[in-house]
Amino acid sequence: MRMDSKKIEELLQKYWDCETSLEEEQRLHEYFRNQNVPEQLKETATLFHYFEQQKRGAVSEQFDRTMLGQLKKPQGKVTNLVQTSLKIAAGVAVLIAAVFFVRQEIRKNDVAMEDTFDDPQKALEETKKALLMISKGFGQAEQQAKKINMINEAQEKIQTKEKDKKQEL
Fold it and tell me: For residue 105, what are the domain limits?
């Protein structure tokens, strides 16, 4: 089946716009398998050749079975205990880091450790500084906690899917 270049260019435009059907895409693949491609379409032909090579180099079914087998291994109470321990440890580490940074900042500024200030404006400024330092520490801690939470949510989704699959069997 031989198509004219105008028809191919129209089909390619549909392809780049993600509007082609599977049959139209198949026609494009067949067209570019041909060695007699016009010069203006040589670059596109190279791309389609690359797609064909990638199809042939796909992951084997054995790999899929092995990976699914690894994912289906049951997780026991030890794993849950480790996860809980890691969550607690992360929280404690964030708290320790926040306290450490606040203490370092206080030492760095060499501020007198008095309970009261004679000047209310100076007291307000020092309070603002301390709250800003604590805020920065908690902001960093919150970012880390969000990362941990995202990992935990992903793991829970995987476990839920595994349980659903087991129930289906």
Answer: 67-168
